Structures are given as C-alpha cells and as structure tokens.
Amino acid sequence: MLNEVRIAVIPGDGIGKEVTAEAVKVLRAVGERFGRQFEIEQLPWSADYYLESGITMPPNGYDLLRQFDAIFIGALGDPRVPDNRHARDILLGTRFELDLYVNYRPVKLLDERLCPLKGRTPADVNFVVFRENTEGLYVGIGGRFKAGTEDEIAVQEEVNTFKGVHRIIRYAFEFAHSRNLTKVCMADKSNAMTQGHALWPRVFREIAPLYPSIEATHYYIDALAMYMVLDPGQFQVIVTNNLFGDIITDLGATFQGGLGMAASGNIHPGRTSMFEPVHGSAPKFAGKNIANPIGAISSAALMLETMHLESEAAAVEAAVVKAVREKQVTQDIGGQLGTTQAGDYIAGQVRQA
C-alpha cells in the first residue's frame, strides 16, 4: 500500500478550477485522517496557459504525467479557444498516450429525491458503465472536403480493434467477478453498423462463457437507453464503445441528480491513471461559488479506490452520502451552500470518520 502518493493536478478551466480545489481539500483531509502523505503538484495547463504561451502542454508533458501515481484533472473548455485544441491535447491526448483504455463511470443514486424517475430509490440506481476509451470515433480519423460550401463532405471514421474490444469487455467481466456481481450487459449497434461493430458481439460471445456465474446480456444501444429509463435496477455492469459510453453515462448522470454528481476514472490497470468529474467547464457559472463539487470529490474517491486505498475511499464516499442526505450541498441538489462551503463540510466529515 502506498504511504506517499504523488498526484498531478490539472485544475483546468471554468468551474473546473473551483471543484478541483474542493477535491484537493478533501484529499488533504484524507491525509490527516489516515496519516497518509499526498504530494500534490499543480500543473497550469489550461486555456489561460495556452492563450498566454501558445502551448497546450509541454513537449515532455505525457512523460511527466507518467511519473505520478495518479492524475486528477478538472473540466476543460473555454470559448476563447473555439476549437478546444488545448482540451484535445490535454484530456484526449493523455487518454491515448497513456493508453487509459478503461473509462470507469459509476451511476449511483445517493438520495431518492434526486432521481427524476418516478418511484426509484438508491437500490434501483446502482450500476457501473465501462466505456472503451482509446478507440472509436474519438481517434480523429477523417476530414472535410469543400468545407463551407453546398458540396461539403464530412467524414469521420470509427476504429474498433480486436485488442481494444477484447480488453474492455474482459475488464468488465473481471470487475463483475471481483465484486461478486452477476450481470454484465454489452451494447453496440451491430444491426446497422454491420462491419464496424461486428467485433463487439463476437468478442462478447467468446468471453461470456468464461464467466458462467455471470448473466451476459446484449442490447443494441437504442434499446439499452430505453431499458435504462424503464428499469435501471436491472443493470449492474454495462460495457460499450467510446461514443455510446459517453452518451449513456450522461443519461445515467441524470438518474443521480445531474452531471454535477457524476465521477469517472480513465484507467490502465497497474499504470498511472487519470480521474475527472464528468461535467464540463460551464464558463457562465465560473467564479460564482455555485458549482457542485461532488462529482470532483467522488472522482477523488475513485482515484483512492483504484490505488487500493479502500478505507480512504470509503471515508470520502460516506462523507458525500451524509452531505447529500443532510442537504449540506449546493443549490442544484437541494442545499443552500456554496461550492467552497460544501467542500468544507465533506472534508470535515472525512476528518471525523
């Protein structure tokens, strides 16, 4: 178990800076409570850094990140950088260069009042989504011809490899097995994308029999979205591709109370991994002390869990649950606190755990 933990922190843009500060505050509280030293290095990479320097991140940036035990990143995006090239290099670039092929997104309702689905309780909304994180439509293969004219042609190609599909599906089954879960659902669109998605059901059918205690279900992505709304309680582990995972986890976040509640990890087992809240930088809310820090704080808990600091992660999770149920939270989820005050409350609960 790690005693000294080195964490690179990239606060990002907009509300990313504010909620990241609260996640760091909670990590400091964890260190005090458990006698663990967190060596946190703040990296300035952001829209401001790019606009000032013309550099999205230094040439040795990815090698630098590999030297840390983990990376925590806030939201990226700024209207002053219309093409978001800094976000592409920092976020997507890190996913690709560090081969963070597992995007881990828990969907967990903490209080019944936050769920827009009628009659659903925390027992009904408690599943995880594993999104393939290094392939699909996000690889950026394609282009535009005669852009800006009536003859414009736009092409974006999706990449699916046996290696990529196999390892994310295997990871989903291994996760379920390690947690004594009994259901894994895989989603694709192989009925329409008969070539591009042919790998997904083939690999799923090959891997599922290796886990006879786990019920393996296959849905097309549109059917999965429908079933998630109708009965989220039927799901435990969902695995899908990069684009579909992005979409359905935003849908799942609404079951939790909104994007401000949603956490995620970008993981390569045994290597430096990166953790981030799901929400965006929301520039119009920046500087107002109203952003919900729970997604960021819960992402820090995922980071601790992934580093096998289970007791520390559990303390953060318990503090978050208490804050939500006692309404010691921001206004978007029924409280009256500001971002900083909500972070203070959760950090205080961690110290008292």
How would you characterize this protein structure?
With 353 residues, this protein is α/β, with parallel strands linked by helices. The chain has eleven helices and twelve strands. The chain has helices at residues 15-34, 47-53, 61-66, 85-97, 162-178, 199-207, 221-230, 242-256, 294-306, 310-325, 339-352; strands at residues 4-10, 37-42, 70-73, 102-108, 126-132, 136-145, 153-159, 183-188, 215-220, 237-240, 263-267, 273-277. Strands 2-1-3-12-11-4-5-10-8-9 form a ten-stranded mixed sheet, sandwiched between helices. A two-stranded antiparallel sheet has the order 6-7. A hairpin with a 7-residue loop joins strand 6 (136-145) and strand 7. The two termini are 20 Å apart. The mean pLDDT is 96.
Helical fraction: 25-40%
Mean pLDDT: 96
Total DSSP E strands: 12
The coarse overall form would be globular
Radius of gyration: 20 Å
Strand order of the largest sheet: 2-1-3-12-11-4-5-10-8-9
Number of helices: 11
What is the straight-line distance between the termini?
20 Å
